[in-house]
Design brief:
Shape: globular
Number of helices: 7
Radius of gyration: 16 Å
CATH class: Mainly Alpha
Strand content: 5-15%
CATH topology: Serine Threonine Protein Phosphatase 5, Tetratricopeptide repeat
Structural class: mainly alpha
Distance between the termini: 22 Å
Number of domains: 1
Helix content: 40-55%
Length: 174
Amino acid sequence: MGEHRGNGDRLSGLDSGRQPGEVGPRRPAIGLSQLPNSKDFELVHPRCVLQRRGDYEEGMELWKAGDPEGAIEALRFALEGCGDNLWIHVALGKIALEESQDYNLARGHFGYAFELVERALPKSVAVRLPRTLPGNKPFFEAAEGLATCYERMNRRDEASRVRRQAERLGGPER
């Protein structure tokens, strides 16, 4: 999983999950960090991503060992403590897509991760998220998974829209 570099301006497109004046715990949010001397950005993930890393890794090891049910259980447990974890949503989407061909469930996980990033992007500023930066990788995996789900559901226009958005945000590769 990527880690925040701590070297740029942080922008957050998600609200805290609270109404004005409401008191309570702050909702984890995806943010953006501009790379120094660049127009490029890297996604900044909630602190809970690192806190749940062990659970995520356990789930991935279980899946790799041929236990998709155990992997799902471990990943869902990790998700309970960090609902905005892109890596976990991508992993659950891949398991649903590859193990059971459950396109609706896979689309839900990939789509949620994709939407979290879209909501974090400022409307007034063109943002480039290089695919090679660790924090940006799960977004592009989610976009590809979502597009694949749409294709398998014969929703080609939606698949094309998702791929165009990812291509626009990824910009030209260097």
